[in-house]
Structure formats: structure tokens, C-alpha cells
Specification:
With 511 residues, the protein is an alpha+beta fold. It has 11 helices and 29 strands. α4 packs across α5 and α5 packs antiparallel against α7.
């Protein structure tokens, strides 16, 4: 429990003291250890602190004047700088569920304009799972009423209106031109808020990008768009399509024109899932297939090349996108080598991070630049771009030799065997990604795991923060991207490096 302010101490009123002095008292009182702790601050560097906060998918930052006394309520002495828009809205009704969802479908929201009129603000259908939906219904049913609480109600069918008393906190990207929330996500009830005090904050018009998303969604004609794919978060098939449309420029450079292996979960991550890597008849628009020389009997391998392909993957119920380390025009020549760090689940995360940095340094000393990715699971990927000069057998031999060199140098840290017994307390260095038809999780792909985690590229210096591999999720990735000053993998496609004779000699492959 972190404390950031102190107003009274031993009968003394401290509110007139400047913030800086009050924080000195607070720090001496609670310290930095134990269940109750002092919340520290940064002097200056506001833009940098906000960028870092957004990069770690936090809500934002609060900036305060250090020389000001405490004053209740809002004023000019402190301000919030958010990564995404987030504010309170009053619940005015709910719609029944559709498809596999139970409890409720969506909440209808409203707020007061600056003239005091209660106006419709849109509806939110994501962010609540079965348990939170049941809790919401239990609270809303006693408030049921027959008519809408708005002077100008929306044209919605099958709505159960309620007295506007409960306040919900909602995160959203922006506002539409007609005053509706864009991409809202329910974050919880605010039982400390009076519904009469909830007013509309800054309303920004939608941009062309949002209109393009809506057009694409309409053209895709998703079947069962309200089907829930991640029950606990209430994330639907449509919400997944919106996510991929919003981050298309981030993910397509890493998956376009590469053979793929797909994890399909038509009934969501909690249902039956299966792998697919070959194209078949009747696949959605944008999903292509191409045979691989020498593997013609396997049939055509799946690949995509544009936004239509991304939407086609969503239509198929794909929750994981795994890519080859080579492209479909030269599948025999990899351009990415992957070191997969698969740790014992009980291993301290600091050891996993130290292992990744050690691999980076080992490769750097040989002259190879590497990039870092969280997998959305337990471990990390260290990815090395190379020119397409080496066949798969050379790539696999080199990565295996690197792994063996690391194992010899640090047998207490790494394991060469994937069995749980052999890697207890260690990191299994998996180099089997470096061969034909083997794949690794694509950057920005979701995972078919509880919590809706996402695989995310990192800058190497971010690893020092100790964030775990499943830190980023579908609910936090937008804040992550909004807070980045630059893409950590922006130049991975422009790095020109190869496996040289000196490198092979360094790991024992050349005499």
C-alpha cells in the first residue's frame, strides 16, 4: 500500500505546509519497506517520465507543484497526463448477451454536459468477464425502470433502462463526432463517485483512422462478432479485429510474406484450440497459400500480406500467430535467428533477464546485433537478423554452437534439455526454432492464455525494469504503443550482418 500524501500527524494539521516538506515527513514516518510504503517522485523530466509510464502500459502520471499547500478538490496545483483517455460515466441501462456470453451484453453510458443535461455517451461491451458481469447485474436489477433517463435516448432495441446512479470507470481511445465513445473498455465501478457529479471531459472528434477502422470492420462481415474470446476480460471477436486494425502498421512488417503456423481457438482461449499451417479451400479473403520447394507433399503453407489477411485470421478464430524465420519467396534462407529462453517456471525473473542480457553480450562480442521480445508466456526471445546467405542447416548449426558455448560457460544458468527435471532452476536454451517449418511467436500477436497476453518487442534497456514476459495484454498494449518515442524494432529489417568464418570459429565450427 503506497502513500503519497500526509495531512495530519500527532494532532498537527500539515495541510498548509508545501508538498515537498510534507513528503519529507511522510518518508521518515513510513519508509520504503513493509506492507505500507512511501511513494517516491521524480523531480522534473515530466515528458520522459510520462513516456516511460505509457511504455509500461500504466494509466499515466500526476504532476504536482512542490511548493504548494494541500487543497482539496481539483485545481491548478496538480494535473493528470494520461496515456489513453479514461473517465467516469453513469450507467443508464444494459443490453442482453449474445452468443456465448452470459449475464449482460453491453452497458449504456451517459454523463452530464456543462449545462447539466444527462446525455448519451455510447455503450461498452468489453472489459468485464462473467464474474464482474454477474456482480453488475446484481447491482443494476434493483435500479430497473421502464423509460430511458436521457432526454434524447439512443435508438437501441432490447435495452433494460436503469436509474442513473451507478458510476463506471471506462478507458477509451477518443470520441466520435456525434459524441460517442470510441473503443471503450470497462475498468470497474466507482462506488465513491456521485452520479450527479459526472460530467463530460474534453471531447475530441474522431480522426480518419477511426473511420477507416469502422469501414474495414463493416466490410469484413465478421461472423459472431460478439463471441467472447477471453471470458475474464470480456474481449470479443470484434474487439480483437479492432486491435489488429489499430496496430496493423506495427505487426505487418513482422508477419507479411512469411509462412505461418496458426493457433485457432474458435470458442475462445478456454475452448478447444488446434494448430493449422496449411491453406485450405474456403479460407477468408486475404489468407493465401504457397508450397515450399522440397515440401510439396505438405501442401501450401499459409501466409498473409495485408490488413485483409489480419481480419481473415480473426475470422478464423486465430489467437496466436507464429512465423517462420524466413520469407515465403526464399523459405530455404532464413533472415531471422531465434534464441528462445524457456525458464523453469519457479526461476526468479531477474535470472531470466540476466540470461537474455548475457546472450546479447555474447552475440555482440562476435559482431552480431540482437533484438528482444517478450513471448506473452514464460520466457523471452533474442532475435538476430541476418542476410539471406545461409541455408537452414548452417543457421541451426551456428545457433546450436552458440547455445553449447553458453552452456559450457554457465552450466548453473542454462540447460540443454527441455525436460522439467533437467531444467529445474535453469533456463532451457531452445534453438529448434532455427529450422524449416519451425516457428516463433510473432511480435504483437496475442496468446491463447488467460489474461489475453501479447508478445511485445522491447528495447534492451527496458529489461532492467523487471517486467515479466506476460506483462503486456490486450488491455494494456495500446498504452504501451502510445507511450513509445520510437519502435524498439524499427530498424530490424535494415540491419546487414551475416555469420562469418570468425564467428563460426569462435563457437568451434571452424578449425
Amino acid at each position: 500500500y503506497y502513500l503519497f500524501a500526509i495531512l495530519y500527524l500527532d494532532g498537527f494539521d500539515l495541510r498548509a505546509a508545501p508538498l515537498e516538506a510534507r513528503k519529507v515527513v511522510l518518508r521518515e514516518l513510513v519508509g520504503d519497506d513493509g506492507p505500507v510504503r512511501y511513494s517516491d517522485h521524480f523531480d522534473g523530466r515530466g515528458p520522459e517520465v510520462r513516456r516511460r509510464a505509457c511504455g509500461f502500459a500504466l494509466e499515466g502520471i500526476v504532476s504536482k507543484r512542490r511548493d504548494r499547500p494541500y487543497r482539496p478538490g481539483r485545481g491548478r496545483d496538480w494535473l493528470k497526463s494520461k496515456c489513453l483517455s479514461r473517465q467516469e460515466f453513469v450507467i443508464a441501462g444494459w443490453t442482453p448477451p449474445q452468443g456465448a456470453r452470459s449475464g449482460l451484453g453491453a452497458l449504456l453510458l451517459g454523463c452530464h454536459d456543462h449545462a447539466g443535461r444527462f446525455t448519451y455517451a455510447g455503450k461498452v461491451g468489453t472489459g468485464f468477464g462473467e464474474r464482474s458481469a454477474a456482480d453488475l447485474l446484481a447491482r443494476l436489477r434493483p435500479l430497473a425502470r421502464s423509460d430511458a433517463p436521457f432526454a434524447q435516448p439512443p435508438q437501441e432495441r432490447r435495452v433494460q433502462w436503469v436509474a442513473p446512479r451507478l458510476v463506471a470507470e471506462v478507458e477509451f481511445s477518443n470520441w466520435t463526432r456525434d459524441g460517442r465513445l470510441r473503443h471503450p473498455s470497462f475498468k470497474g465501478l466507482r462506488l465513491d463517485k456521485d452520479a450527479a457529479e459526472v460530467v463530460r471531459e474534453a471531447a475530441l472528434p474522431t480522426g480518419a483512422a477511426d473511420e477507416e477502422i469502422e469501414r474495414r470492420i463493416a466490410e469484413a462481415r465478421l461472423t459472431s462478432p460478439d463471441k467472447v474470446l477471453y471470458a475474464r476480460q470480456g474481449i470479443t471477436k470484434r474487439a480483437l479485429a479492432v486491435y489488429y486494425l489499430e496496430i496493423a502498421d506495427w505487426i505487418l512488417p513482422h508477419i507479411a510474406q512469411r509462412p505461418l503456423t496458426l493457433v485457432r481457438c474458435p470458442d475462445g482461449h478456454g475452448g478447444e484450440c488446434f494448430y493449422q499451417r496449411h491453406a485450405a479451400k474456403g479460407m477468408p479473403r486475404g489468407i493465401h497459400g504457397r508450397t515450399v520447394p522440397g515440401r510439396e507433399k505438405d501442401g501450401p503453407y499459409v501466409y498473409v500480406q495485408d490488413i485483409d489477411g489480419l481480419l481473415g485470421l480473426v475470422q478464423m478464430g486465430v489467437l496466436e500467430i507464429h512465423t517462420w524465420g524466413s520469407r515465403q519467396d526464399r523459405p530455404d534462407r532464413p533472415d531471422l535467428l531465434v534464441f528462445d529462453l524457456d525458464p523453469d517456471p519457479e526461476l526468479d525473473w531477474a535470472e531470466v533477464a540476466a540470461g537474455a542480457r548475457e546472450i546479447r553480450l555474447f552475440l555482440h562480442d562476435m559482431g552480431l546485433r540482437s533484438f528482444l521480445e517478450t513471448t506473452g508466456g514464460k520466457g523471452l526471445h533474442v532475435v538476430v537478423p541476418v542476410l539471406r546467405r545461409h541455408p537452414w542447416n548452417e543457421a541451426k548449426a551456428f545457433t546450436a554452437a552458440v547455445a553449447q558455448a553458453l552452456l559450457r560457460a554457465r552450466p548453473e544458468r542454462y540447460a540443454a534439455n527441455m525436460s522439467k527435471a533437467r531444467r529445474r532452476g535453469k533456463i532451457y536454451l531452445d534453438i529448434l526454432r532455427n529450422q524449416p517449418a519451425a516457428t516463433f511467436i510473432a511480435p504483437y500477436s496475442t496468446r491463447a492464455r488467460p489474461g489475453a497476453p501479447v508478445a511485445v518487442p522491447l528495447a534492451w534497456e527496458e529489461l532492467d525494469a523487471g517486467l515479466r514476459s506476460d506483462h503486456f495484454t490486450l488491455e494494456t498494449i495500446r498504452r504501451r504503443l502510445a507511450g513509445l518515442r520510437e519502435d524498439p524494432w524499427a530498424d530490424i529489417g535494415t540491419v546487414r550482418q551475416s555469420i562469418t568464418k570468425d564467428m563460426r570459429r569462435a563457437v568451434g565450427l571452424e578449425e
